[in-house]
Amino acid sequence: MSAFGVLDIGASGANVHGQWLQVIAHNLANINTVRSADEEPFRQVLLHAQENNDDGGIGEGVRSYQLVESDADPMWVYDPDNPLASEEGYVVRPVVDMAGQMSDLIVAQRGYQMNLQVIRSGEEAYQAALRIGRQ
């Protein structure tokens, strides 16, 4: 770990939470995206993260490592007036869990804010140490 490990860890956490916020925004932006019956529906994407521990020692923050699409079953909706409807009148709705995404949004936002606070606190501690060293 570097001398500024706290800053590195806070920055990695803020980076992952920022990416998570972008993924959630993408999912929510497509919550009303219907597709024709013969097309695959939009599926929410999940961001997987893991400890950033390349040397086998003490952890050095986190990193995102994989985007995974939901494997939940799509929902068919009867909407015969929709231009994308099948001959039977069905369209396929996106596979997005609105409640889950909103909960994740709160967690990701709070995580991002907390990591920024870690960075601020680390900077203040390093500045205090430099002031002590000058005296």
Keywords summarizing the entry:
single chain; 135 residues; alpha+beta; two-stranded antiparallel sheet; 2 helices; 5 strands; 46% helix
Structural notes for this entry:
It is a single chain. It is elongated, with a radius of gyration of 22 Å. It has 2 helices and 5 strands. The mean pLDDT is 89. α1 (5-29) packs antiparallel against α2. It has 135 residues and is α+β, with helices and mostly antiparallel strands. The strands form 2 sheets. It has a 3-stranded antiparallel sheet, with no helix packed on it. A two-stranded antiparallel sheet has the order 2-3. The protein has one domain (5-33, 43-71, 96-134). The longest helix has 37 residues, at 98-134.
